[in-house]
Amino acid sequence: MALAVCARDVKFYDWPSFHFMGAYEVPAEYLSVKGISWCCDGSNLLVINSKGEPLLITAPAKSQTKISIHKCVPVVNVFAGVFAKKRSNDLALGLENGEVNRFDLQTKEFVRYKKLPSGIQNLDMSADDQNLLAGCFDGHIFLYDTKGTPSASLMVPNSYSLSTALFSNYSKLVGGASKDGSFAVWNAETTDLEFACKEHTSRITDLGFLENTVTTVGTDGFLCIFDLRTSSLISKNNLDGALSSLAYFPGSYDLAVGTYNQLRSYDVRNLNTPIRTLLVNNGGHIKSIAASPRGLEIAQSSLDKTVPASGDFSIPSNYPSSGRLQEFEAKAAKPSRTYKQSEVQELEKFINDYMKYISMQFAEKMAQSFYGLRISTSKQFICMGEKMDESWKNFISYLRFAGESDKGSTFCSKDSLKDKGK
């Protein structure tokens, strides 16, 4: 699976091995990349440059594959862009002057939404593509309906700024964070405030939802995890250094965190030590981390399926079994779905890469354990050698002074005898 990492340029890595696959180097006239977004089938990556028109990059299929780059929308001064979650040809663009446009890559049609009073900072689509979120530079978060009209306006409590905002892919929730460390979650349907808090002392740079939790990272170096069911903080970890981005990998416990020229991989069950650290050398802090959906949805769907309680796969788990064995004909039943060869290959590649990743992780932990054992044993030998040297020196010193003391006492006894003879 391809992993796109955005700082000044965009670099592609294979996950979970972190093997370098290719890079898009920003031309000098474009300055740097502002943001990235994958289409739902993982075939194209939307790249928003600081200047110029948005670009589409075809993801490399394997390491060092030539990257195909082409312009997609004849619009300049774009500050934010995002692909739809369900339609691969549908994307939204936010402009500096507050305009929000939907664009169909296939029909080349524009749909202009109602203009907002402030420039667009970031965009995000809901999981069903029915709503569009637009975060503005003045601190407001606007929710658009299917007609392109703002249906709600949100703002982080006790704050007049906005650093990031996005929808949850697991529920009808919206999260927003500010530059002063405040954070809030709303219900997207009712716009009710679910909870708000301030666990960071400075700018929150990114946030991410995973099932019933939401995670935030900030320039203060802390990673905080909140439980959405209890609206409480369940974990707060200092990861050393300003954190600039994060990304979850559904179907696993892996979490990617971006810092200055570093990409770290953590297990959310143990955030004390990174599993792997990759030096990106991408010209500064990693602004965004995005995992390609290609290959991931197959593995996720297989993980979501459970064995029915009845033991009969033709009977759902929520219906009791009749206890009667079914008689099948000699001809096998037709499967409900036939997977394409490409999907099978993607799943096979994902499994092989993940097994390699686990093997590498095990080998690294074993090497670290052996290294620690060698260091501990060496220290004990050094300490033992120092003690032996000290004991030997004490013994030599004892012999030297002990001999002089005996000789002195002998002389004294002879002199005393002479005195007595006199």
From TrEMBL:
InterPro entries in UniProt: NEDD1_Spindle_Assembly (IPR052818), WD40/YVTN_repeat-like_dom_sf (IPR015943), WD40_repeat_dom_sf (IPR036322), WD40_rpt (IPR001680)
Segments forming a coiled coil: none
Gene Ontology biological-process entries: microtubule nucleation; mitotic cell cycle
GO MF annotation: an example: gamma-tubulin binding
Any Pfam family hit: WD40
GO cellular component: centriole; centrosome; ciliary basal body; cytoplasm; spindle pole
Protein name: Uncharacterized protein
Provenance organism: Dendroctonus ponderosae (Mountain pine beetle)
